[in-house]
Design goal:
14 helices, elongated, single chain, 78% helix, mainly alpha, disordered N terminus, 0% strand
Length: 320
């Protein structure tokens, strides 16, 4: 970096011309992309600053560009990802772009604030001063985004709209390598599948209408394939959670199979009072399930399900 002025005269990127600011921002972005790390790009900028290749003003603009340059990695990482991954990447990109624009618009005042802070704290290290500048404009970016958060979320959803409901939106292959996150992703998919099964089951039992469980069966298959890709558990708790998810898959498949078989007995339900009573209790279970899933009230759902299970077991004993 000490020989950098021999190749690029950064003194040309100064003065009243507007274009040099844009050029330095682009250089900062390119540095981050080429080095594949904003931290490495900042270190390069600090080296250039210490060797006199650039001044503090130019270094600040380069850092803004490097901050924006990190969005390229987020964009590439989200390609082919789930809706949630794409929205997260979009939020990251928009945040950095907004922060960069705000930093450029108020660059003169930000540099003055940094100068005041370094003078008050007797800071002479340019690296620390640049770190203060970087922290300052990112904090301002946080304040700006928080102030427009409702519109910010709407914008992200418009850029990355919802697709047709599917269960693999949680099953991002990139998280399968991290055991606990992979288990949580599969758990969320199973919750959505259970909710869909419960809605269709209630319709089957109360309205006596035939329903199609193909979508839910496909969802269970996707969860099963995802679970096989999850990294081996590192702790006993992770192992128990993994086994628990496998059991829930089995219960889901058996539930769908039982509901599909029950379609053959809907005529008997209409004439047999005992069977009709049993079906009513099953419908109550699914109604409670739907309600508690929506409220994330898992403890109460467990209690209600256990209560209904015992009641149904008693009815079955009486019929034997």
């Amino acid at each position: 970096m000490g020989n950098l002025p021999a190749f690029i005269d950064f003194h040309n990127f100064s003065g009243d011309q507007w274009w040099w600011t844009i050029v330095l921002v682009i250089v900062g972005i390119i540095l981050t992309v080429v080095l594949q790390s904003s931290s490495a790009a900042v270190v390069t900028t600090l080296t250039a600053l210490h060797t006199g290749a650039i001044d503090f003003h130019q270094a600040a603009i380069l850092v803004i560009g490097q901050n924006v340059g990190t969005t390229v990695k987020a964009f590439l990482a989200a390609m082919g990802g789930t809706i949630a991954a794409k929205r997260t990447a979009t939020a990251h990109i928009l945040f950095n772009l907004i922060t960069g624009i705000v930093a450029l618009l108020f660059l003169h005042w930000l540099l003055q604030i940094v100068s005041l802070i370094t003078e008050e704290l007797h800071i002479t290290d340019l690296a620390v001063a640049l770190a203060i500048f970087h922290t300052l404009f990112n904090m301002i970016g946080v304040v700006v985004v928080l102030s427009i958060l409702p519109w910010f979320k709407i914008l992200i959803k418009r850029i990355v709209p919802d697709q047709d409901e599917n269960y693999h939106q949680f099953l991002d292959p990139t998280v399968a390598s991290v055991g606990p996150i992979g288990i949580e992703a599969s758990r969320r998919a199973m919750i959505q599948i259970l909710s869909s099964i419960s809605v269709k089951a209630q319709n089957l039992l109360l309205e006596k209408n035939a329903v199609d469980f193909n979508k839910e069966e496909k969802g269970l298959q996707e969860v099963q394939e995802f679970l096989t890709a999850i990294a081996n558990p590192n702790t006993h708790q992770q192992y128990e959670e993994h086994v628990g998810m496998i059991h829930s898959l089995d219960h889901g498949e058996r539930l769908i199979r039982a509901l599909k078989e029950s379609e053959d007995y809907m005529d008997a339900v209409k004439t047999d009072q005992r069977v009709n009573e049993l079906v009513g209790q099953l419908a109550d279970i699914f109604e409670e399930t739907i309600d508690n899933i929506e409220k994330n009230n898992w403890d109460h759902l467990l209690e209600v399900t256990e209560h209904h299970s015992f009641a149904i077991a008693e009815l079955r004993k009486q019929d034997r």
